[in-house]
Automatic annotation (TrEMBL):
Lineage: Bacteria, Pseudomonadati, Pseudomonadota, Gammaproteobacteria, Alteromonadales
Domain of life: Bacteria
A Pfam family that the UniProt record links to this protein: FlhC
A GO biological process held by the record: positive regulation of DNA-templated transcription
Protein name: Uncharacterized protein
Organism: Parashewanella curva
GO molecular function: DNA binding; metal ion binding
Keyword terms of this UniProt record: Activator, Bacterial flagellum biogenesis, Cytoplasm, DNA-binding, Metal-binding, Transcription, Transcription regulation, Zinc
Amino acid sequence: MNMIQRSEKIHRASELIKHGLQSRLIANDTGLSIHSVRSLYKELEQDFPDIRQNKEAKTILTSKWRILDASLLVNLYVQLTKVDNIHHLDVNVLMDAHKLYQRLRMSIRLPQINSQNEISLNEAWLLVSEIKKENATLKNCRCGCRYLFIYDQKVSPKCPLCSLSKIS
Ligand SMILES: [Zn+2]
């Protein structure tokens, strides 16, 4: 890697750090070593993202509401990315989708849509990675909902919208 390539990677990593992405994911995206990314974190005086976010994708889907949240985010990502490109994880598109997702959540303001349920950017990365690896998919329900399903998730694999409307 020459100096220009390295400086471009460092610039990109700095941008991702400012968005709160984990060092492991930044190293994966930029090709820089974990050590270099961690040094950058220190230089930029940024806190390391919450270690609890370093988890498996299936543990993100803890309730039907979380599945709805995750589905909204992943649907936005799929809409923004090129259809033939779904198996390539585009971090820029993911960040755009996450911003849109946060704005939509704010405007809906359902009582269950609270900050605890919000899917973080790191979690969004994990979820989209599962689609890329074909461990997850978007399922179409008869009600029109296109919801996220991870093959070994703990919550019922049925449509979350239909299940929630039966309860209420
Ligand atoms: Zn449904």
